[in-house]
Amino acid sequence: MNRMGLTLLYTFSLSRDWQLNAFLDYQRLLDDASDSPVTDDQGDDNQYHIGLNIIHQWSF
């Protein structure tokens, strides 16, 4: 296991076919992943991601 984290997701239905998703994700790098040269030089052990998705569903 190289990371642990938590994701929060909120889904809002705009209509029967359209949805809007917003998410916030936090990951903590562990062991070898946190000790890599990439995270030592330019990165961080704490990783954050935020996003917004628009989803359309087709019915057949």
By secondary-structure content and strand pairing, the structural class works out as: alpha+beta
Report mean pLDDT, rounded to a whole number: 90
Q: Helix fraction? A: 10-25%
Summed up, the helix count is: 2
Question: Helices and strands, in N-to-C order?
Answer: EEHHE
Number of domains: 1
**Beginning-to-end CA distance, first to last residue:** 41 Å
Which strand-content bin applies to the residues?
over 45%
Largest sheet: 3 strands, antiparallel
| Rg, nearest Å | 17 Å
Unreliable parts: none
Strand order of the largest sheet: 1-2-3
How many beta-strand elements?
Answer: 3
Shape: elongated
Topology overview:
Elements: E1 3-13, E2 18-29, H1 31-34, H2 37-41, E3 46-56
What does this structure look like?
- With 60 residues, this protein is an alpha+beta fold.
- The chain has one domain (3-56).
- Helices cover 15% and strands 57% of the residues.
- It has 2 helices and 3 strands; from the N terminus they run ββααβ.
- It has helices spanning 31-34, 37-41, and strands at 3-13, 18-29, 46-56.
- The protein has a 3-stranded antiparallel beta sheet.
- Strand 1 and strand 2 form a beta hairpin.
- The radius of gyration is 17 Å and the shape is elongated.
- The mean pLDDT is 90.
Task: Offer a concise description of the structure.
The chain is an alpha+beta fold and 60 residues long.
Question: What are the defining features of this structure?
Answer:
single chain; alpha+beta; 15% helix; elongated; three-stranded antiparallel sheet
